[in-house]
Design brief:
CATH class of the largest domain: Alpha Beta
Bound molecules: flavin mononucleotide
CATH superfamily of the largest domain: Flavodoxin domain
Number of strands: 6
CATH architecture of the largest domain: 3-Layer(aba) Sandwich
Number of helices: 6
Strand content: 5-15%
Structural class: alpha/beta
Number of domains: 2
Largest sheet: 6 strands, parallel
Shape: globular
Distance between the termini: 73 Å
CATH topology of the largest domain: Rossmann fold
Order of helices and strands: HEHEHEHEHEEH
Length: 205
């Protein structure tokens, strides 16, 4: 009888250990499920400066149209209205745009840039080209082999040489799709999608 009791207790203990092992397995599977969460490979990075935040509005729609992550290129020191006065020779924006080596500091760096294969880079046209902070952004990362598509908003100018300027100065090893596009007039998501389709990006891009 005593022997039977000992065998019974051992069997019950073995069963208990087995159930613990099973529950651990379940936890492991849950972790595996988490790690298979799909990471986006397209990024829309944008800089917007005026109070109207025109470029931001378009960037949000582009991110929706392309199922992309969105990142704001935020200056460490925000631009004031005076800074943006293009009629003032001494304003911050005029001084920066006269100096092709100016690199205004950015507040935050993306830690997961490796994840992205296609990057849309958006900005307001300043003096017919991209604001210098876009150079700062591009120079912070190794963009070799990544596809970059510039887009902009403006008071009427087209992309001009903004894409070529950026490529040459700050990311020559990326695969640029130029000239990119000015997306003025608050275009709806559908018309942005139509433009993206004309780019004929590879599935892997
Ligand atoms: C310093 C400065 C320079 C500008 N230069 C041009 C220009 O050369 N051509 C143009 O069409 N618009 C120019 N603009 C107008 C902006 O491109 C336009 O208002 C843009 O949509 C603003 O975008 P945001 O609201 O995202 O800052 C300039 C604006 C500023 C502040």
């Amino acid at each position: 009888m005593k022997k039977f009791t000992i065998v019974f207790i051992m069997a019950a203990f073995a069963l208990f250990l087995g159930s613990c092992a099973d529950s651990n397995k379940t936890d492991g599977n849950a972790e595996a499920a988490d790690s298979t969460e799909v990471k986006k490979t397209t990024l829309v990075a944008y800089f917007t400066a005026s109070e109207l935040r025109t470029t931001e509005r378009v960037a949000k729609r582009l991110a929706e149209a392309t199922d992309a992550d969105l990142f704001e290129i935020l200056p460490a020191l925000a631009y004031t209205t005076e800074d943006l006065d293009w009629k003032d020779e001494d304003s911050r924006s005029t001084i920066e745009m006269k100096d092709s080596t100016a690199r205004p500091e950015i507040a935050e760096k993306l830690e997961n840039m490796d994840q992205y294969t296609t990057i849309y880079v958006g900005f307001p046209i300043w003096w017919y080209t991209a604001p210098r902070i876009i150079n700062t952004f591009l120079e912070q990362y190794d963009l070799t082999g990544k596809t970059i598509i510039p887009f902009a908003t403006s008071g009427g100018s087209d992309m001009g040489k903004s894409g070529e300027d950026l490529k040459k100065a700050s990311a020559p090893n990326a695969n640029w799709i130029l000239p990119g596009k000015v997306l003025n007039g608050n275009p709806p998501v559908d018309s942005i999608k139509a433009w993206v389709e004309t780019l004929q990006l590879n599935k892997e891009d």
